[in-house]
């Protein structure tokens, strides 16, 4: 049986770590030999959860050394037993590409999760990225937009065209269909059943844009309350909340393993962002029957597919208007809830894993 390893820079909060967690468990469920390698054990969340489920998790360091040359030598040593090496996000992608020079008999797969990144602001990085992607046997993008942007950036040759694929992310639909909401009184905030509860679950870092969502609260009535879930530096957001005198309506909850139950207890979810590769939290919210309003960017507009659930990026007034229009029209709200559940059915974890296993089969001898 072939040995598979998923590689990432960490296993902390975020959609990519959740992707690795879900995929690893599904592989294990299907009887595959699966391991996970993380460049660091810092900010570890999903690694611990995978270990509880019996998945082999290997940490290369207990420090934040993701850009250290030490990773090359550590990976060369740790990747020797594996047949398929599946890299996710930079710089784990870059170190894996370097390893392929020394361990060139293995099959290397890369998943591109973002429609853009900071490297693409520097023209000279195009040459580095072009080389990096060329080292992988197959390159999978999580959306059509991600795939188009990647090809536009690295300009692959005709000979390399066969190696690019699109596989949409998927979730364990049955799990999200059955989520039981938390009772609002258990949230330990001044929130009642009469309030309109809004939430956003995302890391406090670029490209996410919690600031626009906070500003939108000034244009909504007192009954609207906001829960912000996620790790990261919240200094700017906390300062803005205090400046706008919203501390009685905007609550910071940190990272929560029960984020799904909190989202389920809300009336509306929001994903305010400057760009997005796929938006796993969008599908999760839809599967739970919670309408999610998103920035009108990249793949989110295709994923949501409803103008009433999209607002102009960075426009707090437009966001507030979309929230009010949805909440104040009960018939429309219920119709969108049903539409969300139906749309989520396209994005199942089992379907996604089936597609990845087909890609693996393509590269195996």
UniProtKB/TrEMBL annotation:
One of its GO terms (biological process) is carbohydrate derivative metabolic process. Residues 193-336 form the Glycosyl transferase family domain. Residues 14-175 form the Glycosyltransferase subfamily 4-like N-terminal domain. Keywords: Transferase. It comes from the Bacteria. Pfam families: Glyco_transf_4, Glycos_transf_1. GO terms for molecular function: glycosyltransferase activity. This is Glycosyltransferase-like protein. The lineage of its organism: Bacteria, Pseudomonadati, Pseudomonadota, Gammaproteobacteria, Thiotrichales.
């Amino acid at each position: 049986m072939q040995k598979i390893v998923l590689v990432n820079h960490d296993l902390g909060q975020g959609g990519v770590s959740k992707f690795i967690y879900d995929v690893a468990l599904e592989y294990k469920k299907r009887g595959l030999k699966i391991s996970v390698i993380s460049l660091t054990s810092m900010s570890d969340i999903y690694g611990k959860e995978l270990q509880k489920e019996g998945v082999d998790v290997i940490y290369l360091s207990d420090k934040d050394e993701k850009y250290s040359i030490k990773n090359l030598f550590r990976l060369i040593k740790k990747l020797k037993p594996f047949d398929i090496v599946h890299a996710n996000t930079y710089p784990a992608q870059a170190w894996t590409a370097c390893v392929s020079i020394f361990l060139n008999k293995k099959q290397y797969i890369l998943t591109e999760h973002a429609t853009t990144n900071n490297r693409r602001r520097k023209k000279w990085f195009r040459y580095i990225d072009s080389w990096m992607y060329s080292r992988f046997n197959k390159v999978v993008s999580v959306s059509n937009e991600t795939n188009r942007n990647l090809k536009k950036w690295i300009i692959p040759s005709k000979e390399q065209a066969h190696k690019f694929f699109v596989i949409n992310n998927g979730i364990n639909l049955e799990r999200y269909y059955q989520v039981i909401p938390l009772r609002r009184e258990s949230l330990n905030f001044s929130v009642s059943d009469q309030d309109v509860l809004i939430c956003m679950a995302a890391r406090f870092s670029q490209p996410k844009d919690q600031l626009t969502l906070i500003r939108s609260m000034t244009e909504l009535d007192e009954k609207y309350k906001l829960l912000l879930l996620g790790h990261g530096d919240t200094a700017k957001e906390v300062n803005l909340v205090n400046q706008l005198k919203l501390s009685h309506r905007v609550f910071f909850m940190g990272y929560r393993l029960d984020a799904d139950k909190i989202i389920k207890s809300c009336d509306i979810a929001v994903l305010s962002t400057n760009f997005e590769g796929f938006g796993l939290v969008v599908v999760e919210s839809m599967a739970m029957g919670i309408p999610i309003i998103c920035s009108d960017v990249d793949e989110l507009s295709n994923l949501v597919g409803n103008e009433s659930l999209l607002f102009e990026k960075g426009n707090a007034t437009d966001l507030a208007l979309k929230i009010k229009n949805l909440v104040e029209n009960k018939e429309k709200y219920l119709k969108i809830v049903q539409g969300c559940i139906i749309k989520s059915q396209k994005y199942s974890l089992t379907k996604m894993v089936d597609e990845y296993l087909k890609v693996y089969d393509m590269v195996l001898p």
